[in-house]
Amino acid sequence: MWLHYPPHWGGAPGKPEPPFNRRRKNITDEEKINKVLHATADAITRHSEVLHATADAITRHSDYILAENKKDLAKEQERPCQNGRERPEIRPPAAYARQAYG
Questions:
Q1: How far apart are the C-alpha atoms of 58 and 39, rounded to whole Å?
Q2: What DSSP element (H or E) covers 74?
Q3: Is residue 16 a contact partner of residue 9, using CB atoms and an 8 Å limit?
Q4: Is the CB of residue 49 less than 8 Å from the CB of residue 38?
Q5: Is the four-CA dihedral 37, 38, 42, 45 of positive or negative sign?
Q6: Is residue 72 part of a domain?
Q7: Position 18 in a domain
Q8: Which of 4, 11, 86, 91 is disulfide-compatible with 95, CB 3.0–4.6 A?
């Protein structure tokens, strides 16, 4: 026979449960709903923080790519002309679209 019962069994019969294992038995439905709503709100907040951080990283990366493209364009325009011909003007794609489609 056991001299004592493990705490997860609720302690020894006839004796009160130890304080660390004591649980509130009468939790109302409203309290359960509030707990779930608060947990959901916290999860949404954390998710939105992650989304904002991702958007910031994408913005920084696109700014970096734009700066690199401007550097490359400047280098391209600085190169001397080849075969004695003038270098054609380098235009962005939007300019070609306006020229082609009016």
A1: 29
A2: helix 29-78
A3: no
A4: no
A5: positive
A6: yes
A7: no
A8: 91
What is the pLDDT tens value at each position of the chain, 102 positions in all? 445 556 555 555 666 555 554 555 677 888 889 999 999 999 999 999 999 999 999 999 988 888 888 888 787 777 666 666 666 666 666 655 666 665
> Looking at the domain assignment, is residue 47 inside a domain?
yes
Rounded Cα gap, residues 22 and 15, in angstroms:
12
- Domain with 55 in it: 28-77
Contact 77, 90 (CB under 8 A): yes
73 near 87, Cβ under 8 Å? no
Tokens found for residue 86: 């003038």
Q: How many domains does the chain have?
A: 1
Greatest pairwise CA separation for the chain in angstroms: 105
Hey, what amino acid is at 85? R
21 assigned to some structural domain: no
Total-model pTM: 0.41
